[in-house]
Amino acid sequence: MTTFIQFALLGLGAGAAYTLLAQGLVLAYRGSGVLNFAQGAFALIGGFLFFELRQNQGLPLVPALLLAVAATAVLGGLVYDLIMRPLAKAAVIARVIATLGLMILIQNAAVLIWGANPQSVHSLLPTSTLSLGGVYVGIDRLIMFAIAAVLTAVLWAVNRFTTVGLALRAASDNPVAAASLGWSPTTFGRLTWLLSSAVAAVAGILIAPLSSLSAADMPILVVPVLAAALFGALKSFPITFLASVLIGVGQSLAGYYVHAQGVAESLPFLLIIAVLVLRGRGLPGRGHVNDMLPEVGSGRVRPLLVIPLVVIAAFLILRVFPIDLVDALTVTMAWALLLLSMTVLLGYAGQLSLAQFAVGGLAALLAGKLVNDAGLPFSAALILSVVLIVPVALLISLPALRTRGMDLAVISLGVCVAVTALVFTNGDLAGGAAGIPTGDRSFFGIDIDPLMDPSKYALFVFLVFVVCALVVANVRRGTAGRRLLAIRTNERAAASLGISVFAGKGFAFTLASVVAALGGVTLAFKDSALIFENYQPMSSLLVVAFAIVGGVGYLSGSILGATLATGSIGSWILMSIFDNPDPAWLGLVGGLGVVLLAVQNPNGLAGENLKLLHAIARRIRKSAPKPESADTLGRRVKPKPCPPTTLEVKGLTVRYGGVTAVSNVSLTVRPGEVLGLIGPNGAGKTSFIDAVTGFTAPAAGEIRLNGERMDRRPAHLRARAGIARSFQSLELFETSSVQENIFAACDDGSLRTYLTDLFHPRTPVLTPEAAAALDELDLTRHRDELVGSLSYGKRRLLAIARAVAQNPKVLLLDEPAAGLSGQEVEELRVVVRRLADEWGFAILVVEHDMSFVMQTCDHVTVLNFGEQIGYGTPEEIQADPAVVEAYLGQVAETAEEEPEPVPSKESR
């Protein structure tokens, strides 16, 4: 027991350090809405400034400490004003990526200034030990723990009991409302970044003596810090403190009790990551704000251009380029494969994974073991390692099924750190400093040994990239690509159209991991031995950074971004200009490029180049006749009535924690009938639709479609069974065209498409039902327009048209008339009746426009505080005193004048 306590107390120092960094991170997030991945890098700056001033320049302790902390705080304030403030309205992922670029920039700047070797730093705290009941603990660790505890208490008290804390919470929740009350979100953002950076500097100064001051290691401290902050939901200072201490103590105890390589570094925050995954949800909740991600290319391939370019490049590689340029081209193409995996994952699917370099490294390790231990030839080892990486990819994709955005980025970075600690630094697995011999390299009998003939190996890697790029282009043009874009734009809308979000994410991670595996193997096997000591988490961050700089949504962006990698064409150019330049310069340029592009042009160099080419093409073709667009509307035929289908809901109850939103509601929607569902705000109408369509799990009740149970099925399977819906918040694919939104509704959901689209993507054609839906709602002439350019009324009609285009059996419309003009409401009323009378749909309408409800619906159900208080024809509902009292706030019998009823549909 004494040993247990001893090592637990030893972990207090690390826990205190994590606390300081984590509390600063939470503070900056509360003030600016930015999750700062560069928090560890700010600690690095503070530590190095103190080291420089105290040990190199000889300043006294107090002035050195104050200057280092103040300078780091000023840097944090400048970062907020120059980078984060311009990104205030940008997507969350854009802000996260900017902090990743900042992290890379600071780390490489530190390497250029102070060198890559760790520096030994004198402690400013007493280093003697104290005996507590026979257990010895360093006084410095106790002081650090006390500092962390006091900081936590102060932050909690200020946040909980002061006007400033109240204003900070208000500005965090609603900046516009806080500004209207006289509280400046900009001031709070700047102040919290100043304080957060100052706290990070103090943490760096206190941490450095515990191990060393290392530009490679200290920025990565952000991983357990992020895990602790997310465990506290980026809000609670006490919970963040508890999680930080548990991580530090857990690492210390695991280091003593568990002797397996890397477990001590990995286990504690992997457990917290597991909690984050369990706390997530398969689909985002109502009110989830979808990120605006970089634009994507069309995936269109021009054979008359691609084939000659490939032939010319092959000739240059084999016959013209010097050996040093050939080697640089090999590195560039291998890195381009790694970046191409990010095009699939982040560009198409919107999944910010920071583990792609680790995936490539694992594939390289597998291939090395197969060659060196199993005696397989390189070609067989390459193929088999790619196959074996697929289950690893699926395992890594599991957190993405329940998390997204910041949580997924933190989790994947944690996985990357764990793989590095457990595998790459394990000499028994990875071969240590000597590495794993690569043996002879031939591909199905063709000698491609990079040491004997570098040109052949470079050509091989180049051709592998070309094939992978063509496959990714096929995916972009096919149904699989449209599914991924739908998922990245709006997961809830994708699921409502029958698209399996889980299957789509799994496919994206699998394809991206296969491409990354090819990149990792070809990069590692260019040398005589596989050395894994350089496979650090920072390399995975560089993959994301370079992909963003190149243009993560474009195939050409992977090549442009890869030129920033060490040993690539960028290095070759740098070495041609300068004498023996430090490789950190490329990392510095890459980090700076990420920051600048995040602020000014998130579409990267490829997107900017494409805009320039399009502008030139427009000038050249100004006088040329505009070609007619291809007709994708298909045959215009009147849809046949759908098979008669009845939706039955019995005893449905929905609870959110201790609040009952829907209580024991039963109703039946029959084919050819329009049933209205009305009630005051907060009555549970949308919660009812969410439960029926699978977006909210009911606490009790049954949902049947023609007698078949639906309540155990996920949302996308209910959609495929014939239950379609529109959303109160529209949930359209905002960056796509009207036609692309309708295409998504025409997807049959076949999993086979994910395989066939790799080689032969299908040209999309609207179904007759989809074309008729566009015609019914007068959207055909708008089909090529972007959703964002439409008026609100047209967007509302598009949401309905997309639901109708699924050719469902049951249609649930959530406030379809909201925001429409009087004429549009009348036209919509006619369309809804026609969908019921001629198409045979069973329709449930939630609406506040009583004129629309009473003139359109056959029957009406009324909810109040989640309970069903009325059912009947429109005339019966208007005459029901309980309904009138609940809905209008008065009893009809006591009214001085009997209100004139709204005309029913029969009276029109």
Kindly state the mean pLDDT as a whole number?
88
| Contiguous helical run count | 36
Q: Tell me the strand percentage band.
A: 5-15%
CATH class of the largest domain reads Mainly Alpha
Please explain how this structure is put together:
By secondary structure, this protein is of the alpha/beta class. It has 3 domains: 2-276, ABC transporter involved in vitamin B12 uptake, BtuC (Orthogonal Bundle), CATH 1.10.3470; 303-536, no CATH class; 647-734 and 809-907, P-loop containing nucleotide triphosphate hydrolases (Rossmann fold), CATH 3.40.50. It has 36 helices and 16 strands. Strands 12-13-14-9-15-16 form a 6-stranded mixed β-sheet, sandwiched between helices. A 4-stranded antiparallel β-sheet has the order 8-7-10-11, with helices on one face. α14 crosses α21 (501-524) and α22 crosses α25 (584-600). The chain is globular. Residues 626-636, 891-902 and 904-908 have low confidence and may be disordered.
